Protein backbone atom coordinates (compact mmCIF):
# COMPACT_ATOMS: atom_id res chain seq x y z
CA UNK A 1 0.00 0.00 0.00
CA UNK A 2 1.13 3.57 -0.67
CA UNK A 3 -0.32 6.58 1.12
CA UNK A 4 2.02 9.46 0.26
CA UNK A 5 2.59 12.39 2.58
CA UNK A 6 1.23 15.48 0.84
CA UNK A 7 2.14 17.84 -0.57
CA UNK A 8 5.00 16.38 -2.61
CA UNK A 9 7.30 19.16 -3.75
CA UNK A 10 9.78 19.17 -6.62
CA UNK A 11 11.97 22.08 -7.71
CA UNK A 12 9.06 24.07 -9.16
CA UNK A 13 5.95 21.99 -8.60
CA UNK A 14 3.61 20.85 -5.87
CA UNK A 15 1.88 17.47 -6.33
CA UNK A 16 -1.25 17.05 -4.23
CA UNK A 17 -4.69 15.40 -4.28
CA UNK A 18 -7.33 17.13 -6.38
CA UNK A 19 -9.78 19.49 -4.62
CA UNK A 20 -13.25 20.76 -5.45
CA UNK A 21 -11.90 24.18 -6.38
CA UNK A 22 -9.80 22.59 -9.16
CA UNK A 23 -12.89 22.20 -11.39
CA UNK A 24 -12.36 25.19 -13.66
CA UNK A 25 -8.67 24.45 -14.17
CA UNK A 26 -9.42 20.77 -14.86
CA UNK A 27 -12.18 21.64 -17.30
CA UNK A 28 -9.88 24.15 -19.02
CA UNK A 29 -7.70 21.34 -20.36
CA UNK A 30 -10.14 18.40 -20.44
CA UNK A 31 -12.34 20.41 -22.82
CA UNK A 32 -9.56 20.88 -25.40
CA UNK A 33 -9.53 18.70 -28.56
CA UNK A 34 -5.73 18.77 -28.65
CA UNK A 35 -5.56 17.30 -25.14
CA UNK A 36 -8.05 14.50 -25.89
CA UNK A 37 -6.55 13.74 -29.30
CA UNK A 38 -4.30 10.86 -28.20
CA UNK A 39 -6.46 9.71 -25.27
CA UNK A 40 -9.42 7.34 -25.13
CA UNK A 41 -11.96 10.04 -24.30
CA UNK A 42 -13.44 12.93 -26.22
CA UNK A 43 -13.26 16.56 -25.02
CA UNK A 44 -15.39 16.88 -21.90
CA UNK A 45 -18.01 19.41 -20.93
CA UNK A 46 -18.02 21.02 -17.49
CA UNK A 47 -20.38 18.46 -15.93
CA UNK A 48 -18.29 15.57 -17.23
CA UNK A 49 -15.19 17.23 -15.77
CA UNK A 50 -17.05 17.65 -12.47
CA UNK A 51 -17.80 13.93 -12.40
CA UNK A 52 -14.20 12.99 -13.19
CA UNK A 53 -12.96 15.47 -10.59
CA UNK A 54 -14.83 13.50 -7.90
CA UNK A 55 -13.08 10.32 -9.05
CA UNK A 56 -9.70 12.05 -9.01
CA UNK A 57 -10.30 13.43 -5.51
CA UNK A 58 -10.83 9.87 -4.26
CA UNK A 59 -7.61 8.55 -5.87
CA UNK A 60 -5.01 9.66 -3.32
CA UNK A 61 -3.94 6.23 -2.02
CA UNK A 62 -2.82 2.97 -3.61
CA UNK A 63 -4.37 0.18 -1.55
CA UNK A 64 -4.47 -2.73 -4.01
CA UNK A 65 -3.35 -3.64 -7.49
CA UNK A 66 -5.38 -1.91 -10.15
CA UNK A 67 -5.69 1.30 -8.11
CA UNK A 68 -4.66 4.65 -9.57
CA UNK A 69 -2.98 7.48 -7.66
CA UNK A 70 -4.00 10.73 -9.38
CA UNK A 71 -2.29 13.95 -8.36
CA UNK A 72 -2.86 17.56 -9.33
CA UNK A 73 0.29 19.32 -10.56
CA UNK A 74 0.52 22.90 -9.33
CA UNK A 75 3.13 25.47 -10.36
CA UNK A 76 4.18 26.99 -7.06
CA UNK A 77 5.35 30.26 -8.58
CA UNK A 78 1.86 31.14 -9.80
CA UNK A 79 -0.46 28.72 -7.99
CA UNK A 80 -1.77 27.52 -11.37
CA UNK A 81 -3.00 23.94 -11.79
CA UNK A 82 -1.01 22.89 -14.85
CA UNK A 83 -2.20 19.30 -15.17
CA UNK A 84 -2.12 15.89 -13.53
CA UNK A 85 0.19 12.94 -13.07
CA UNK A 86 -0.84 9.34 -12.43
CA UNK A 87 0.56 6.13 -11.01
CA UNK A 88 -1.21 2.78 -11.37
CA UNK A 89 -0.31 -0.28 -9.29
CA UNK A 90 -0.66 -2.86 -12.05
CA UNK A 91 0.55 -6.03 -10.29
CA UNK A 92 1.40 -6.85 -6.69
CA UNK A 93 2.95 -10.23 -7.55
CA UNK A 94 5.17 -8.89 -10.32
CA UNK A 95 5.69 -5.46 -8.70
CA UNK A 96 4.60 -3.59 -11.81
CA UNK A 97 3.38 -0.01 -12.21
CA UNK A 98 2.39 2.45 -14.90
CA UNK A 99 2.78 6.21 -15.08
CA UNK A 100 0.80 8.79 -17.02
CA UNK A 101 0.42 12.55 -17.22
CA UNK A 102 -1.78 15.19 -18.85
CA UNK A 103 -0.80 18.86 -19.01
CA UNK A 104 -2.68 21.94 -20.08
CA UNK A 105 -1.06 23.02 -23.39
CA UNK A 106 -0.66 26.52 -21.95
CA UNK A 107 2.14 25.08 -19.82
CA UNK A 108 3.89 22.89 -22.40
CA UNK A 109 7.56 23.46 -23.14
CA UNK A 110 8.60 24.15 -19.55
CA UNK A 111 9.65 20.63 -18.54
CA UNK A 112 6.77 20.31 -16.08
CA UNK A 113 5.64 16.88 -17.35
CA UNK A 114 9.15 15.45 -16.92
CA UNK A 115 9.55 17.00 -13.46
CA UNK A 116 6.20 15.71 -12.23
CA UNK A 117 6.60 12.25 -13.79
CA UNK A 118 10.02 11.84 -12.19
CA UNK A 119 8.44 12.37 -8.79
CA UNK A 120 5.89 9.66 -9.58
CA UNK A 121 8.61 7.25 -10.71
CA UNK A 122 10.24 7.85 -7.33
CA UNK A 123 6.95 7.09 -5.57
CA UNK A 124 6.59 3.85 -7.51
CA UNK A 125 10.11 2.57 -7.09
CA UNK A 126 11.00 3.89 -3.65
CA UNK A 127 7.57 4.29 -2.05
CA UNK A 128 5.74 1.25 -3.37
CA UNK A 129 8.81 -0.93 -3.98
CA UNK A 130 8.02 -1.63 -7.63
CA UNK A 131 10.40 -3.62 -9.82
CA UNK A 132 9.27 -2.26 -13.19
CA UNK A 133 7.30 0.74 -14.43
CA UNK A 134 5.93 1.43 -17.88
CA UNK A 135 4.52 4.32 -19.84
CA UNK A 136 2.12 3.64 -22.72
CA UNK A 137 1.22 6.13 -25.42
CA UNK A 138 -0.32 6.59 -28.84
CA UNK A 139 2.40 6.12 -31.45
CA UNK A 140 1.67 9.58 -32.89
CA UNK A 141 2.27 11.32 -29.56
CA UNK A 142 5.86 12.38 -30.14
CA UNK A 143 5.88 14.96 -27.35
CA UNK A 144 4.87 12.37 -24.74
CA UNK A 145 7.55 9.99 -26.02
CA UNK A 146 10.16 12.71 -25.48
CA UNK A 147 9.06 13.05 -21.84
CA UNK A 148 9.58 9.32 -21.20
CA UNK A 149 12.95 9.40 -22.96
CA UNK A 150 14.10 12.36 -20.84
CA UNK A 151 13.19 10.27 -17.78
CA UNK A 152 15.58 7.58 -19.00
CA UNK A 153 12.88 5.05 -19.88
CA UNK A 154 13.60 2.52 -22.62
CA UNK A 155 11.41 2.23 -25.72
CA UNK A 156 10.55 -1.47 -25.55
CA UNK A 157 7.77 -2.02 -28.04
CA UNK A 158 5.92 -0.46 -30.95
CA UNK A 159 2.63 -2.30 -31.48
CA UNK A 160 1.31 -1.57 -34.95
CA UNK A 161 -2.42 -0.83 -35.28
CA UNK A 162 -3.20 -2.78 -32.12
CA UNK A 163 -6.12 -0.63 -30.94
CA UNK A 164 -9.21 0.90 -32.46
CA UNK A 165 -9.45 4.38 -30.94
CA UNK A 166 -12.09 6.90 -31.98
CA UNK A 167 -12.85 5.03 -35.16
CA UNK A 168 -9.30 4.50 -36.41
CA UNK A 169 -6.54 1.97 -35.91
CA UNK A 170 -3.73 3.36 -33.80
CA UNK A 171 -0.25 2.21 -32.82
CA UNK A 172 0.81 1.87 -29.20
CA UNK A 173 4.35 2.52 -28.00
CA UNK A 174 5.56 1.18 -24.66
CA UNK A 175 8.44 2.55 -22.60
CA UNK A 176 9.78 0.90 -19.46
CA UNK A 177 12.26 1.25 -16.62
CA UNK A 178 13.48 -1.22 -14.00
CA UNK A 179 14.29 -0.34 -10.40
CA UNK A 180 17.97 -1.07 -11.06
CA UNK A 181 17.91 1.38 -13.98
CA UNK A 182 16.28 4.01 -11.76
CA UNK A 183 19.00 3.48 -9.14
CA UNK A 184 21.77 3.69 -11.76
CA UNK A 185 20.30 6.88 -13.18
CA UNK A 186 20.12 8.38 -9.70
CA UNK A 187 23.73 7.43 -8.97
CA UNK A 188 24.91 9.33 -12.07
CA UNK A 189 22.75 12.40 -11.46
CA UNK A 190 24.48 15.52 -10.08
CA UNK A 191 24.74 14.97 -6.35
CA UNK A 192 23.38 11.45 -6.72
CA UNK A 193 24.14 8.93 -4.01
CA UNK A 194 22.59 5.80 -5.44
CA UNK A 195 19.59 6.09 -3.12
CA UNK A 196 17.43 7.88 -5.68
CA UNK A 197 17.58 11.37 -7.15
CA UNK A 198 18.09 14.14 -4.65
CA UNK A 199 14.80 15.53 -3.41
CA UNK A 200 14.04 18.88 -5.06
UniProtKB/TrEMBL annotation:
<feature type="domain" description="N-acetyltransferase">
    <location>
        <begin position="13"/>
        <end position="180"/>
    </location>
</feature>
<dbReference type="Pfam" id="PF13302">
    <property type="entry name" value="Acetyltransf_3"/>
</dbReference>
<dbReference type="InterPro" id="IPR000182">
    <property type="entry name" value="GNAT_dom"/>
</dbReference>
<dbReference type="GO" id="GO:0016747">
    <property type="term" value="F:acyltransferase activity, transferring groups other than amino-acyl groups"/>
</dbReference>
<protein>
    <submittedName>
        <fullName>GNAT family N-acetyltransferase</fullName>
    </submittedName>
</protein>
<dbReference type="InterPro" id="IPR051531">
    <property type="entry name" value="N-acetyltransferase"/>
</dbReference>
<dbReference type="InterPro" id="IPR016181">
    <property type="entry name" value="Acyl_CoA_acyltransferase"/>
</dbReference>
Amino acid sequence: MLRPTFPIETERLTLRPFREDDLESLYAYQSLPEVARFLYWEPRDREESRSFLREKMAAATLEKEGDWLVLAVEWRETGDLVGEVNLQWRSREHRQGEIGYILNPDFHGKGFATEAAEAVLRLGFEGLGLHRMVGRLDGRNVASARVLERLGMRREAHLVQNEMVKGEWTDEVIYAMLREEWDARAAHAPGGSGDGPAQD
